[in-house]
Amino acid sequence: MDRAAEMEIFVHAVEEGSFSAAARTMRLSPSAVSKYISRLEDRLGARLLMRTTRQLSLTEEGRAFYERARTILNEIEEAEEVVTQLYAAPRGTLRINASVAFTKMQVVPLIPEFLARYPDVRIELTLDDKFTDLVNDGYDLAIRLSALEDSSLIARKYAVNRRMIVASPEYLEKNGIPRKPQDLENHNCLHLSSRESFNDWHFETPDGHVAFRAQGSFSANDGDVLHEAVLAGLGMARLAEYLVHEDIRTGRLTPVLTEYVHDQAWISAVYPHKRHLSPKVRAFVDFLAEKFTPVPPWELGFRDARAVRRNSDGTTDTSKTARDVGK
């Protein structure tokens, strides 16, 4: 038995006045209580209690030990109560690591509502498109737009992150519309320098899988910057649907090669431990689920813009896509 348990048995015996009463409280036998207290006295090398058939009385050493033991047990109870309260209601600092563009556009606008709902929570947000070691770097959770590579982590999936190749109508009028993936060789395809793998554009064609390496006159380390460059007519880029859905709906951008692009990944909240998940983490994970499922907000009212119609020649065409530019 550990020292805290020995202290607890001793304190109960003193406060309840007998071994038998302490035994009932601790769900032990009176002989077991007597044995533990004798063991405690032997370990300390001092008699703590004077025993008679009617009562227990403290020795001088016993009183000094009792007062200190009572204080220690109170502190243990308070420590346990603090943890219990933390699990009872979301509170404390929530450290989040998240991808840059998605978080700026889709998560940050939701944070005021979350903090109003949970006023005892404080959020510390770090934006980073690189993979982060959540445990070693001290993060409670991460928001990721890619496959989960660490099997020790838990992922709560919310929505599919669809990527599409887009350009401005002005760029397409000036440079032409690519009809097949090979046509991209004649276009200015903007480059994301922070993640090289992002620049491998993948297509499914009747002849099989085709990969194209995006290269052009402009590169940036941030998806938001590529978005702005495409809007300015600089070239075409592969961007996420959540980033360009409104631009497509209003005609500022046009998707191309839609019948060939099948590029998507899950948007997920990722956290280290499933067991004893703290209330602040659980609250935020559930809050995002409330906002992003079953249909994420960037898809509401946008499905018609992605609706595919069958042409008379058997090809497919997305409504208001590149085929309509210049008509």
UniProtKB/TrEMBL annotation:
Coiled coil: none annotated. It holds the Pfam family LysR_substrate. PROSITE patterns: HTH_LYSR (PS50931). The keyword Transcription regulation applies. The keyword Secreted does not apply. GO terms for molecular function: DNA-binding transcription factor activity; sequence-specific DNA binding. One of its GO terms (biological process) is DNA-templated transcription. Residues 1-59 form the HTH lysR-type domain. InterPro entries: LysR-type_TF_proteobact-type, LysR_HTH_N, LysR_subst-bd, WH-like_DNA-bd_sf, WH_DNA-bd_sf. Keywords: DNA-binding, Transcription, Transcription regulation. Gene3D superfamilies: 3.40.190.290, Winged helix-like DNA-binding domain superfamily/Winged helix DNA-binding domain (1.10.10.10). Belongs to the LysR transcriptional regulatory family. This is LysR family transcriptional regulator. It comes from Thalassospira tepidiphila MCCC 1A03514.
